[in-house]
Design goal:
53 residues, mainly alpha
Length: 53
């Protein structure tokens, strides 16, 4: 298993800035949108039977 390397200081800040710029410059057409599924209609409640005889 590869051990992760941690960078600190100005080099880490530069990598972070570069990553954020690349992340937010992605065209919207490249991002896959999920289709919303239609909501089910609410079922009607059955009326309770009265106990009167």
């Amino acid at each position: 298993m590869k051990i992760p390397e941690y960078t600190e200081g100005p080099e880490a800040l530069e990598k972070f800035k570069r990553g954020m710029v690349a992340l937010f410059k992605v065209p919207k057409s490249a991002v896959l949108r999920t289709k919303k599924q239609p909501k089910k209609a609410a079922s009607s409640r059955k009326s309770k039977r009265s106990d009167k005889d």
